[in-house]
Amino acid sequence: MARLTLCSKTVLLLVCLLYCCTTVLAFPFGRGSGVAELSPATFSQFIDTHKPVVILFYAPWCGHCKNFHADYEKFAHAVKGSVRVGALNADTHSALGQQYGVKGFPTIKYWKVGKKGEPQEYAYQRTAAALQSFVTNDVSSSHVITSASTVEALKSVLIKATNKTMAVLLSAKAKVPPIYSIMAMSPKLRDAMPFVFVGSPSADVQAALGIGELPKVAFVKLSADGSSMEATPFAGVIAYEPMAKFFLACSTGDCDAEKVEMTAAAPEVTTATPAADAAAGSEAAPRAAAAKKMLPIGLVPYAANGLMDYCSYAALKLHGQTPLCVIRLGSAADLGRAHASFSTEPLLFLDASAAESRQVLLADLVAAHIFTADEAAARLSGVTNGVLLLRISKESVARTKVLATVEDDAALLDVLQSALTGNVRMEKHTLS
């Protein structure tokens, strides 16, 4: 009996140790959690958005915070893209917590859509389902046109629209989904086109738009002679970010290309197959090697083939997408601090501030057909305190933004937050 008791105590001790070890690692929220770990430097920019914002104020030692950790991550994944979900260690950053009236842990604050003032404190069940229901039920559909339910009414919306285009959601349900309502509130999208919702559409409406299966999201424009509507259905995953990118691309006349990009499944690792090797010739081996290159955890000096190793479409993915590469071109910005602030986002930080690294970067940009030699020299050679943002979202498309002057760390943090939310327009390059 004594032996059994001793054994039981040993098992209990091991269970307790295992529990303690796993919960200690709960904070801060890591990569892939869907939760942005915030600091005083990133907090204001994070809540400056048209989207709803939910922030968990926690203390790492708080038992209730640890118990809620898994549910909060589950909530973040459920509303990814349509709701900004963040967390702040209010034990470390107590002054910021006090500014928002945090008196205990955990405290959850909620900012309504378009409201930048005082947040509302969430005081209901601390479960993923309850929090999601609370936020989504509070979203207004006032920015969505719901009265255009006939073919003629839809044409009328198009004719009145500034660009003679509109976004349309046809659904068998009568209620506008929160994700669509939030998208209609985006300043960039709202300026580009009106958003229309048609619940239980008639056969005439579906036929006029060439849409059969419901629900279906589409970009619609008026035909050249004004007699009919031309719809381009969205064929990707129904989620905020891919749909927003689709509509933005369509608004600039690049609808078909972006539709292909959004529907293409991005594997975690892209590797070359034997057939692809034969077709690609001498380029296949470098691409296969690049796909196996491990991504850096922090800031690393830029070296030869850095674009292929870390930033190319064939490189390893972060959260299912090619990363946004942030390449330092001067000494003003502290990329180490930026990396710490955005450790849960798909960003990679490379340092090309040294003259030798800069020349290697220029050569790689030319070799990748992103810039010509003259363009690379003109845009980057004279930059002494700037940053290059680069994303290669598919094999044939790269997007860049050269920030010639970054005054300080705070300015860089603001730019990166804007880039992650799609508020920085990047130049598109077709790779040959």
Q: Tags for this entry?
A:
flat, Glutaredoxin, 16 strands, alpha/beta, 432 residues
- Order of strands, main sheet, comes to 11-13-12-14-15-16
Spans of at least 5 consecutive residues with low confidence? 1-25, 257-292
Report the total helices.
18
β content, as a range? 15-25%
Basic shape = flat
- Estimate the mean pLDDT confidence: 80
The total domain count is 3
Looking at how many chains there are and whether they match, the oligomeric state comes to single chain
The end-to-end distance, rounded to whole angstroms, is 77 Å
Structure write-up:
This protein is α/β, with parallel strands linked by helices. The protein has three domains: 36-138, Glutaredoxin (3-Layer(aba) Sandwich), CATH 3.40.30; 144-257, Glutaredoxin (3-Layer(aba) Sandwich), CATH 3.40.30.10; 300-430. It contains 18 helices and 16 strands. The protein has helices at 2-24, 40-47, 63-78, 94-99, 128-137, 151-160, 178-184, 187-192, 203-209, 240-251, 255-263, 274-280, 284-291, 306-311, 335-341, 355-367, 373-380, 409-420; strands at 36-38, 53-58, 84-89, 107-111, 120-121, 144-145, 165-171, 195-199, 216-222, 229-233, 300-301, 324-328, 347-351, 387-394, 397-403, 427-430. Helix 3 (63-78) crosses helix 5 (128-137) and helix 10 (240-251) runs antiparallel to helix 11 (255-263). It is flat, with a radius of gyration of 25 Å. The relative contact order is 0.08. Pfam families: Thioredoxin. Keywords: Isomerase, Signal. It comes from Strigomonas culicis.
